[in-house]
Write a structure and sequence with these properties.
Keywords: Coiled coil. The chain is mainly alpha-helical. It folds into 4 domains: 147 residues; 101 residues, no CATH class; 93 residues, no CATH class; 77 residues. 71% of the residues lie in helices and 5% in strands. The chain is built from 13 helices and 8 strands. The strands form 4 sheets. A two-stranded antiparallel ribbon has the order 1-2. Helix 1 packs antiparallel against helix 3.
Amino acid sequence: MGVTGPPGPVMDRDEVDRALARLGAEHEAIETSLLALQDHAGRRLLEGAELTGVTKERWASAEASITLLWAYFDAYTDALRGAREIRSRRRWSSREDLAELTELLRGESVTVAGSVAQAVAGSAEAATPQGTAKLSRSFSLSTLVDRMNELYASSLDMVVTADAVWSALPARIDLLAAELQRTRRLAHSVGVRPGEHPAGDDLERITRTLTSLREQVVSDPLAFWVRAQGSSAPGGGRPDTTVYDREARALEDVRREIDAVLTVRQDAEQRLVRLRDVLSRADRTLAEARTARGEVLAKIAATEVPVVSGPPTVLQEQLATAAEYRRHAQWHRLSPLLESLEQKAEDELLRARESLTAVTQPLAVRAELRGRLDAYRAKITRHGLAEDPFLIERYDAARRMLWSAPCDLRVAEQAVLRYQQAAAEQLRAPRVTEQGGLEDRRGEQ
């Protein structure tokens, strides 16, 4: 929408023709814009919708602005038609015609009824500064075009904004609601229900939120619009999808939870078998530790042997509960119980192995002492000292202690140490060979 030139002296014929050409093109552009606004899908939706909130308030103002806009356009059309009629009276316009055309084209020659101007509630055009209604208002063509531009921009902004929200959010909400229904059916099939599982409660909350969100978006779309910073163009901004995005993420979390429950349903039996195996191995290990403790108490003297506890019955009870959940297809309860049991079973097996290690430690010490004694006996034999009476005495003393029950490990260790020391001394001492020479075994030691 253009603007005519400023007022000035009487226009000549060429100036009048050029002005009329500009006004004609401007009139056509304004008419095209108004018809496009009239046929805009957003405007038709606004006319038929039950609006609330800020959208209701702004649409009431926009409707009045559109009515006033058409009134201004009609007045503009009449003024243009009148100017064309004056110019068409004669080929060479008289000075009186040119003066009349100058006043019409540049002066405040367009009159709009005050009742029409009052259609815009709260408009400064509808009343005098004292608040009394005017019977009519006069405008120049350029001023009228400016007013139409302002009314058109504000009305178009409101229509475009509402249409953008309606085009974006309801469709996305409907798609998410359809996905929500599929998720609810799947959740119900695996026992995820409201009041029984947190994911079931989340699905109910998401359903209520989406239903409320759609109603609000349909009735008050402007409440869900974020205007772009620094933008003055009509419809500059984007739909506010904060609530929608939050619920979409919540639904995705629920889907992951249900997938976990489905996974439990598929491999529940295999996991239960593994659990039984781990707990059985732990029980067998504890039984072996209890048997080993009895052996240690019988064979080893003066030794602190830790007590071996029995298998925890609570794990067996929980395992029975898990089997019951599987039998009744209560997958949502079975899932967290299996995860907890698997960790506890591994911990129990580790505890049983540590108990067996702690209980059999004295037997391991005795075995190590026996091995050390036999190793020195073999070394002495290789050097021809096996018949040494002193070494035989020390060896027999240590052997009796290690192979008798109960065995005092501290005394036996001292006996082995004495045998080692005696053997070391014999190995360091030189001896006479059969040929009469001396043999030094210190290097071998």
